[in-house]
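step=predict obj=glutaryl-CoA dehydrogenase (ETF) n=404
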Amino acid sequence: MAKPGTQETTGTPGRPPAAPDPRDLLDVGWLLDDEERAVRDTVRRFVRERVLPEVGTWFDRGAFPRELAKDLGAIGLLGMHLSGYGCAGTGAVPYGLACLELEAGDSGLRSFVSVQGSLAMFPIHAYGSAEQKETWLPRMAAGEVIGCFGLTEPDSGSDPGSMRTTARRDGPDWVLNGTKMWITNGGIADLAVVWARTEEGVRGFLVPAGTPGFGTRDVAGKLSLRASVTSELVLQDVRLPADAVLPGVVGLKGPLSCLNEARFGILFGAAGAARACYEAALDYTLARVQFGRPVAGFQLVQRKLTEMAVSVNRAALLAVHLGRLKDAGRLVPAQVSAGKLDNVRQALRVAREARGLLGANGITLEYPVIRHMANLESVATYEGTEEIHTLVLGQAITGIPAFR
């Protein structure tokens, strides 16, 4: 990470506060060490200064500024949880906190960083050859090369094992055919990590933009994640050299391990979106005067703010706990599913309650709430729907798979 400035937020060690901080009711920040607070504060400051003044415009235009990639790379956020090749090599909790602060800005921003680091860089780092790592990872860490992850297909979302995209050998080369859908960063990516069915099983392939037969089409008409590029990938007789395949993995283990990394970032990110909505509602109701007093002074409003504060802190505590498990090498996929399932659910509830507390103002981009609320509808379904994570947990609890 770039060298942080002075600490400027809650949750520093020392004597207990005289009263709880309404923005960190359970003093979750006290659980963090100095490195974790430094990461949190650096990213929070970046979001406040670089993102929040413009993100409403990006959302309104349906655009993600490509130049932001180098800014994110400059402060060490791209692939920050990976080691070597220009990556920061931080622990899981600092990475999660960065995702939390990024999504407090916008889900599209956190999605960009998650896809770049956990879905595009991670498989190269974990399963790539030495040459592939040296060729791609340093430039991806710097934001000079943008990556995307091609797994989901038009008819294969929650069931990636039914993918139709194929790769066949033709002499020393591979030839890929198929279509991928709902691909974050697809239209701006310089490199796609595409998963395809081969004779020996599912394999990952590195497909540079501009390869003959490879094209993208951006999804139009989105009402969610508008400050993010979502695309279709089309592969028509795409010919790749033998060294384009990731040599270190065969089977669905490869893409599923990447998804587990991304879901970890999401469970932190959802807590950030929830916090942003709660803080917007708190500020608004304290300033808004009706019947001669601040709206926050009414009992019904205080109950709603209380429920929101509890949900926000519950999500943050769960995220930090799962991060500690991951740093200790104890985190298992079912626990990630629990975090993704509940934190997104809590964030959606907070966003909808906040929207109501802002009244008519809650539907405008002058305030962040409607943007977060719309974004969270996508967060609820990507990287595993609520139903899929419920079945993952059901199998973990009972030992009986119920997917088929």
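step=describe
DSSP finds ten helices and eleven strands in the chain.
step=end
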